[in-house]
Amino acid sequence: MAGQQFQYDDSGNTFFYFLTSFVGLIVIPATYYLWPRDQNAEQIRLKNIRKVYGRCMWYRLRLLKPQPNIIPTVKKIVLLAGWALFLFLAYKVSKTDREYQEYNPYEVLNLDPGATVAEIKKQYRLLSLKYHPDKGGDEVMFMRIAKAYAALTDEESRKNWEEFGNPDGPQATSFGIALPAWIVDQKNSILVLLVYGLAFMVILPVVVGSWWYRSIRYSGDQILIRTTQIYTYFVYKTRNMDMKRLIMVLAGASEFDPQYNKDSTSRPTDNILIPQLIREIGSINLKKNEPPLTCPYSLKARVLLLSHLARMKIPETLEEDQQFMLKKCPALLQEMVNVICQLIIMARSREEREFRAPTLASLENCMKLSQMAVQGLQQFKSPLLQLPHIEEDNLRRVSNHKKYKIKTIQDLVSLKESDRHSLLHFLEDEKYEEVMAVLGSFPYVTMDIKSQVLDDEDSNNITVGSLVTVLVKLTRQTMAEVFEKEQSICAAEEQPTEDGSDANKIKAKGGWQQKNKGPKKMPKSKKKKPLKKKPTTVPLPQAKQQKQKQANGVVGSEAAIKEEEDDISDKGSDSEEEETNRDSQSEKDDGSDRESDREQDEKQSKDDEAEWQELQQSIQRKERALLETKSKITHPVYSLYFPEEKQEWWWLYIADRKEQTLISMPYHVCTLKDTEEVELKFPAPGKPGNYQYTVFLRSDSYMGLDQIKPLKLEVHEAKPVPENHPQWDTAIEGDEDQEDSEGFEDSFEEEEEEEEGGD
């Protein structure tokens, strides 16, 4: 049949429709997401924060070395070229002839529909005289006119036009492919095959292979897998890692090795400059043979980090390498925190006791080292050195003052304005205002803690083995906001009252200190510690009572036997044997009960550890998914010696300070702008009692601003499952059905016996 013939369109006009749609799908979203934002907005932001962050290294580097503008320019050129191509293709499509229009002979003859036969013949004669080939007319147009005349005058042609839309009858179906005509041309078939093979058999596999090779080298946080392996090995090897060892392991990252990271550089001058810095720094362990910690790249990174912490002046040729190394430190320390947490989870889930978990001190040292690297301070230096214009010489005047003992930033904040100004009298007015502006921008975070058991009828009742959820609400303020509140409180309290002005001054001075110095110390009269002895002394009397009962039972049986020896010797001997058998049996029962209890406790502890592991891993997965959806831009950190603008982030976790154990995994709070609510989950202890935990909030950028708050848990015995619990209804119904079936079988057997008897 003619309708089943396929005749492809070789004109290639449909290719422009396809290409226009394809370019539009790329250009429109790319313009929305990739069009460069206003460059003046960044300059305005930097200008607004100049008063506070003007002395920071990252601020000065950004002004001296502004970000290159070639990238936004290239983006604009590419996007504008894409729009030009899109408009050209749209214009091309608009000018393309519409070949798939409905055939209308009246339009060909320029007649209105419904014209009479006389009008059709008259119009045909006029057009024939004009377009006849013998008279110099257009042959194609004359054929169309003759075809239209036949469609309107000839009965068969008119019938074909009415039924099939064409005077010649049914035509073959024509399909236009969305490719240019030269691609389907047989002359170019070899060239097309070569291009196809090059694109899909060479270029595409190379691109996918290179992308895959790069992706498998990095973890989800863009840290080299080799670095994670190095950290895991040395953290497992060194259970309790002090600060020197931690710096050594941190510098062993493969990010600093030119062999694995092209951005890391190694210069011939390093062989001269690095030994000079080592002599200036002093104590560096160089004798141990622990690759890669003793490799040249690791030694260089360690020396540069130590010189940064000591705020030493280094040669200009090493400044760029030091900046590169410092930019990598926060992400590497976060990876080390993740490694320590994973090892703790593995240690709790392993049955082997040889697998020792890293200590809580190792985890906290990682967090402290992050603060030190951002601020450029050593471990035991004063947090006041984070402020501008306060150095070692000036610090002695502040910390060793006779009237004011200022050790922390909170102590400096708690002073009155007049006392603070007199304490910092060595600063000029302009410098003093800058110090106050910087101090006012420092964060002050408060924690509101609430512990509960979700998905339970009594959420406030914590039972053994239940899943405890600690809801922590973090509220961030600046020190400047606290200044205003404290000044208003001080102004109100300084008014004369009946109690006297001295008491008011003491309250005004000590109010802010009590908020920041952690839990208050108990008075001497309340320092009684009888509760600490209870857990160790309670099991001992119970064991003694059991032994005394057994001994009393044996002594009583022996006395009864002696009294009855004269009259009934046989009965006395029998009773003696019975009593001894009972005693031995009771001892066996007690031993078996203890073993069974011990086995149950071990099984319960294993189940709790497995549940704890699954819980912490699911929490980490949810945390990463949540952080990926939220913006991690919070507040810029004031850091005098850090080369990159750092955002203000925190770590939140629960620990047992007495046992030095980690209760919940650290939650990396990266979205705290004003307020943030965080859920910390962990299984309740396996034994009832009162437990004292501590909630830690540690900054990854500031020293001396960590928050500590106690957490008390009262764990009760789990409620027994009631006998008539709804979950047993199905079993009871099944038993009733079984009893009914057994009764039916019995009655059936009785009927058979009666029938046999009748026979």
TrEMBL record:
GO terms for biological process: post-translational protein targeting to endoplasmic reticulum membrane; SRP-dependent cotranslational protein targeting to membrane. GO terms for molecular function: protein transmembrane transporter activity; RNA binding. It comes from Mus caroli (Ryukyu mouse). It is a multi-pass membrane protein. SUPFAM superfamilies: Chaperone J-domain (SSF46565), E set domains (SSF81296), Sec63 N-terminal domain-like (SSF158702). It holds the Pfam family Sec63. This is Translocation protein SEC63 homolog. The ER translocon complex consists of channel-forming core components SEC61A1, SEC61B and SEC61G and different auxiliary components such as SEC62 and SEC63. Residues 732-759 have a biased composition (Acidic residues). Residues 542-551 have a biased composition (Low complexity). Residues 517-535 have a biased composition (Basic residues).
